[in-house]
Amino acid sequence: MGNNLTAIVFCAMWAKDSNRILVDLEQLYVRYQEDGFSVVGVCVDSDVTGKEVRNQITDSLKKAQITFPILFDEQLRTFRQYSVVAVPTTFLIDKKKRILFRLSGYPIVGLEELEDVIRERFKGKRPTAHRAGRNAPVRKEAVYAFGMARHKYEQGQIDAALKYAERASLLDSTYVGPLLLMAEIAIEQREFEVATTLLKRPCSDTDSEFTCQRDRLRGLLAAKRGNSTEALKLLQSVQERDSLSSFTRSSLGYALGIAGKTEEALKQFSAAARLDSTDSRTYLLRMEFYNLLGRSSEAAKDSMTVRKLRLQR
Fold it and tell me: Which end of the chain has a smaller Cβ tally under 10 Å, C or N?
């Protein structure tokens, strides 16, 4: 039992990467449980979690087949004790309650970073190369800066988000997360040449998740430029590979709208909102589409939803 290791993951229904990291940690839990690995989730949806919300979260966890315990952090005491900035954030803690590793946010290489530390703890060594194609793990300082960048972006603080993303990229030039975020912001700000340059930048990451994210942004960029044919080709291909992403759905909805397929577009926006009602990008894209249609009252409702979501961050 001397090799015991516990992952503590701070998560929330409104944090878009929380479900993904919970599912991935469940896999690691099953894989390394016999070695002495355990996982505890800490739900930080709000200071006080009502019965209805608790039931919704519990039902969601059952559907995701999460078997490790999830605790509700009333008054967010544990959240503050660990000085958490971004959600999700994961700590790997040993038997003596020492923090061995901290992962802020959930970047592309997050799962492999976690498993590398776990494997080293129980098996005594790390793999010689990362599965995502990197020759070395992402610098922790870069991961932290990127976590801050995503957090600021979700709050609508674009300048601060860019500042942290640029810092993360400078700390580790091969880290794709900051580049993708900067490209996403450039598309949102209609700085299309900047986005094109960022999406063309060479990178050592070649895993399928990175490819999906890059192709999705390329598709959205094409749609914003009015090239619906290229946009639909890219985004329909991404949807086949990544059907559970709300951002993929909303981007496809925008592309369909640009192509004049209004009914299909609105169906995709609705599907995106059902997949993740807290992803403000769905409402931003639909708001822009409604404005193009001249449906200002519906655009105003989506604008209000975006403001509410950002205040909750």
Answer: N
